[in-house]
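Consider the following assembly input.
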Amino acid sequence: MEFTVKSGNPEKQRTACLVLGVYESRRLTPAAEQFDTACGGYLGTLLRRGDLEGKVGQSLLLFNVPEALCERVLLVGCGREREVDSRRFRQIMHHAASALNETGAADAVIYLTDLAVKGRELNWKIRQLVEAFEESRYRSDALKSKKDAPRRLPRRIILSVPGRRELPDGEQAVREGVAIAAGVKLTKDLGNLPPNLCTPADLAEQAQALAQEFPALQVEVLEEAEMERLGMGALLAVTRGSAQPAKLIRLAYRQGPAAAKPYVLVGKGVTFDTGGISLKPGEGMDEMKYDMCGAASVLGTLRACAELKLPLNVVGLIPAVENMPGGRASRPGDIVTSLSGQTIEILNTDAEGRLILCDALTYAERDEPAAVIDIATLTGACIIALGRHPHGLFSNHPPLAHALQAAAHTAHDLVWELPLWDDYQEGLDSNFADMANVAGNRDGGAIMAACFLSRFAKKFHWAHLDIAGTAWKTGKAKGATGRPVPLLTQYLLDRAAEAEREDGRAAR
Ligand code: BES
Ligand code: MN
Ligand code: ZN
């Protein structure tokens, strides 16, 4: 799908479909009002007759509107004008995109950017619109022998901006929306792959393919022998039961000043989590193919960065393993030495994410990072604590937590911070090693996992995103969400803007 922006009157648009908003009850948005005046009050008459109330989720498709140059008009319900907030705007865009996809129109001019959204500007509305329209056409049917009936979807979407002065801003918003949507799509595609087709080696190949596509990305893959030599005993303990060799994937994006410290993104890449010897119950175990969604979001975010040519240095680190039981698998009670030198008693082989992440975090020290953010489907307890709307956020550096909260708000990809107090740490005490990989009870499980990771993040500013509840949807709509690519990309966009401001100050 191709997106462009344009300013101009709705009645002058020669397009297959004009998309206009209608508030509840039966009130036209400003652009719809303007169109209606030009075509003699036709819309007003229809609304008075009761054909459309304007509730969210409603829409009405019109043909042969008198005096109009467009082939069709799609009226989209927007709910009560005063109630249009960020969440509601996203719902409206979602419904508008589905309704437009059903029309068969090859192109469309959309005037829904004229809705007033509390606290949001044009840039935000355009980005959300692009993301919603890309989302609406997402399918994961590559492995079905009979595809859903091929639909004729719009190819060209034109978004209206109020005037010519807003064109450059609108174009930038489209670029950002398109890049984020492409990153989200990559993340969904990888997450949805079956675990037999998305092994650690497959993830490494995906990273290599991405680096092929974007020359600004360099990739490096560490094999088990190399990890052994370095002393990554925690990561290697997890992969022992698997026939699939582990990979440590490192992607470097260097487009910032040579001296600028990189932002390091560490993504949990467990391509399937059986639990190992601490085997998981069978029900719903297929969903543990999504245990590499953190890794997928690192790839998606780097893709967005590269497409936006952000003037930053960013490193993606992906420990990729499969967690299987077997004759060679690690046992509960095993003690291993991590790359940091700290020893770990593995009391539960199902707490494997923290074992691979701790070695990746220590490995990140080499990059002298500006900040490290790890992204992991880490704990079922995070879903119990927060449900499936926000990512769990933890950090050892309040300004970093604030920056992520701000980016989450901007991208509307929400986070909620949980505490990382020292009071919790003693729960990880072990009689036999420096620490255990799980606490002795289930209290505060998401926090205990973060406490474990924090012991490997003492040398840099660090944040941890627990995406167990947000990386995929269960039930009938089962599928990866592509989150938190919008949040991470926004965080990096903000860092690029910040660097530019500081540059400006230095020059003055
Ligand atoms: N990948 C799981 C966490 C998970 C479970 C995410 C369900 C999403 C849905 C992780 O490796 C795990 O198994 N965590 C354990 C930790 C426990 C053993 C302390 C859990 O959450 O049960
Ligand atoms: Mn597990
Ligand atoms: Zn896991």
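The chain has two domains: 2-138+153-163, 179-506. Ask yourself how this observation constrains the way the partners meet.
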